[in-house]
């Protein structure tokens, strides 16, 4: 009887140990219980960089080093308006329609320079580019050199391509309702006007030596774009 009791005790101990080992193994084999899943933080996307310059200053910085961009479709910070015209920027150009005696006058004054400007005159439009203006508050063909934009001027000597009161156009150019390019070089007393790649007027005159330039609206529709200047 005593031997049986001892056997029962031994057997019980072995069984208990086996159960504990089994529990330990089960605990090790069981996957951990997953807690609540935190949502991933939103991914911020970088903002797209502007595709081109957004101001006149930025346009100057990306242009050719020797040129200053004065208007490239962004703003009119390089000009002061003179007269009643409402100048509106549309796409890459600025326009005014139907006003007289109105100008965009450059804030800088220039002596020797190369001026590049593209223009689009409407039917019977009267406009011009005035350079070396003596008084920015009183722009005229007598206080500046006026490079005319006026296909239908009754005086053929003062039509598009001329320097008003100084030199008639050397050729007739039909500029209305299309884009044209003026390249104007002023160096000392010499002024040379090139219209769409052709020299149309040149003078040797010392009447006006320095001053701002001005873009005119004097009747009809006129548009300007890509206005830049290279000091010489």
Question: What is the secondary structure topology, with strand pairs?
Answer:
Elements: H1 2-29, H2 56-62, E1 68-71, E2 79-82, E3 88-90, E4 93-97, E5 102-106, E6 113-121, E7 127-131, E8 145-149, E9 180-187, E10 190-195, E11 198-204, E12 214-217, E13 221-231
Antiparallel strand pairs: 1-13, 2-5, 3-4, 4-13, 5-12, 6-9, 6-13, 7-8, 7-12, 9-10, 10-11
Structure at a glance:
With 232 residues, this protein is an alpha+beta fold.
N-to-C terminal Cα separation, in Å?
A: 128 Å
CATH homologous superfamily assignment: Exo-inulinase, domain 1
Q: Main beta sheet: strand number and arrangement?
A: 8 strands, antiparallel
Q: What is the CATH T-level topology? A: Jelly Rolls
* Number of helical stretches of at least 4 residues: 2
- Estimate percent helicity: 10-25%
Residue fraction in strands: 25-35%
Order of helices and strands: HHEEEEEEEEEEEEE
Which oligomeric state applies? Answer: single chain
Could you tell me the number of beta strands? 13
What's the CATH class, please?
Answer: Mainly Beta
**Model regions low in confidence, pLDDT < 50 over at least 5 residues:** 1-30
Provide the gyration radius in Å. Answer: 40 Å
Rounded mean pLDDT is 85
Number of domains: 1
- What is the CATH architecture assignment? Sandwich
Description:
The protein is of the alpha+beta class and 232 residues long. The protein has a single domain (65-231), classed as Exo-inulinase, domain 1 (Jelly Rolls). The protein is 15% helix and 33% strand. The chain contains two helices and 13 strands. Strands 1, 3, 4, 6, 9, 10, 11 and 13 form an eight-stranded antiparallel sheet that branches. A hairpin with a 2-residue loop joins strand 9 (180-187) and strand 10. The chain is globular. The N and C termini lie far apart (128 Å). Mean pLDDT is 85; it is low at 1-30.
